[in-house]
Amino acid sequence: MIRSNKLVASLIKLSSIIHFENIQDYKIHLASTDGQSEPLDIFLTDKKRWIGWNEYKPQTNAFNRKYIISFVNVYYEKDTWLFSGIYEVSDIKEDRYVIHEMPLYNEFIGRLKVNLKFCGRNRRLNFETVFDEMYVKTILEEPVKFKNFKNYNSVSVSYADLKFIIDNQLPDWHTALQNIYGVYLIKDKNNGKEYVGSACGGSGIWNRWKDYVTDGHGGNKELKKIVNDKGFEYIQNNFHYTLLEQILNTASNEYVISRENYWKEVLLSRKFGYNSN
Fold it and tell me: Which site among 160, 187, 192, 269 is 20 to 30 Å from 36 CA-CA?
């Protein structure tokens, strides 16, 4: 059982504010990128997928204790991990753990950031091996929310991210994307194929990408074929959206189309991708 004092902390040991009756009952999960996805983004946007990250069972029985304490890597802050829940392991299947979220210190989920300098490959450890090396960085007043819009040069999001942005009409993203025209890239992570498109008129990039969130294809013939053949779920699991070029919303439609054609030529998306025109 964990006990905790509620305070906003400077750099003090985590062990000074939380205590365990039996630390040997706990494993720690340090969730880090798998090379394709950032678990922090999944934690913030897709509860079901986040649970799946904790349920995953490698060939070794990594979570061989009663409880899992889960921390997710804050990839844009050095050596920083965000508390993301405590889970009880109720059963072990061949390919996964059956886990249940515990109602323990839920008020700290998404708020408690700790500092841990960790460079090992194993991300599922006996908690006592790192507990004394963890320092409280801060306890936020509110839980971490989806990443803020930074700038037009770094707009690159998964389908799950985009759906979260659109469905919640995140103000900074909405303001930024509705006020520009542009050329964008949709990448199929499963086979590497690319689709280049553009947006002009109306509410710019925002409305165009909203169409993709709604049906996966936005009316495009080749993308519609993918939805029909493989299902909408294929789009949701594999498509990634990137802004290639920001264009002022005063530009003519002809200019926007010319820039779209330029990028199709550069990326050879007609020959090797999903563009047919």
Answer: 269
Architecture of domain 152-272: 3-Layer(aba) Sandwich (3.40)
Tens of pLDDT, residue by residue over 87-139, are: 998 888 888 888 899 888 888 999 999 999 876 667 888 898 899 899 999 89
User: In this structure, what are the phi and psi dihedrals at residue 14, rounded to the nearest 5 degrees?
Assistant: -60, -35
pLDDT given at position 120: 65
* Domain extents in the chain: 2-139, 152-272
Please check whether residue 255 is in contact with residue 169, taking contact to mean a CB–CB distance below 8 angstroms.
Answer: no
DSSP states along 204-246: HHHHHHHHHHHHSSTT-HHHHHHHHHH-HHHHHHHEEEEEEEE
* Nearest residue to 95 (alpha-carbon basis) of 123, 68, 55, 125: 55
pTM equals 0.58
